[in-house]
Amino acid sequence: MPVTTVEKDLDALTMTVVADFPVPTSRLWDAYVDPRQIEKFWGPPGWPATFTRHDVTVGGRSEYYMTGPDGERAGGYWEFLTVEPGRSFEVRDGFATPDGEPDADLPSTRMVYTFKPTGTGSRLMTRTIFPSLEALEQLLSMGMEEGLTAAMEQVDAVLADLASFAADLPAAAQLLDDTRVRISRVIRGPVQTVWDAHHDPALMRRWMLGPDGWTMPVCEVATSVGDTYRNEWERDGGGDRFGFTGELLESAPPYREVTTERMIGVEGPGAVNELTLTPVDGGTLLTVVVTYPDAETRDAVLGTGMVDGMETSYARLEAEVLTPA
């Protein structure tokens, strides 16, 4: 059992949970910053979590919900206050309403996660700071201690599963709910370089091409929130041109941006793309959460082979842009 101690200090309004793991701190850190991994243990047994947003940067935010055995949902969020990569992060932790907004009827806490090496692996210390004695007593009565320790007891299985999260895996899609899908891949390059490759037209024309045999004659990048972008592709020698356009809604270089997207010449609602870049062991974890207007549109787009095309582009990015000549 990884949890070694649980200490509650009613005077200091804190609860501290210490757990030891037989892996390097970098492996444990990655399990917490990778949404594919943390959602496998964050919810207590019987309440698996789904993270629809997880950008581990100062000012970033996580949004998740846990699904109970009868389909009921309980939502939560983190607001990242400090982040020291590989060492610690501090969040404001709170409950969320069904529409994802903070639940004002329940107290929020501050939680500090500290990762330290040990002689046999690594140690994680989770310190929860409550706003008042009443909040401490309320949250403990709701099962916070049991839920937190039960979740941490599931971490070992995720840490041992190296194959599912290896850096050399191709891009893969995971359905998050009826309208959202998350595409994930580790890109073997630093975050800033991967960000630049997504925003420099000269670089984008080298790799963002999908299957072989296509060119990108139009590449107009949105540089400020409110700007529009436009990308168009055609076959080598011309023909079959198509493209996408949209608006830049949010930008936090080099970690996150949110854009709208619609196919040029096609009527109807488009999609919203949330790009997140996270440094991990082996490179940069790239995740794109795409929100479609409905499940039918989502499934139709995925059925076109979109993810395979993205993988071809990401492999080209690594081989032709990120690998030194």
From TrEMBL:
Gene3D superfamilies in the cross-refs: 3.30.530.20
Domain called Activator of Hsp90 ATPase homologue 1/2-like C-terminal: residue spans: 23-159, 190-320
Pfam short name (any one): AHSA1
Domain of life: Bacteria
Annotated SUPFAM superfamilies: Bet v1-like
Signal peptide: none
CDD domains: SRPBCC_CalC_Aha1-like (cd07814)
Coiled coil, from the record: none
Similarity section: Belongs to the AHA1 family.
UniProt-recorded name of the protein: SRPBCC domain-containing protein
Organism, scientific name: Oceanitalea stevensii
Native organism taxonomy: Bacteria, Bacillati, Actinomycetota, Actinomycetes, Micrococcales
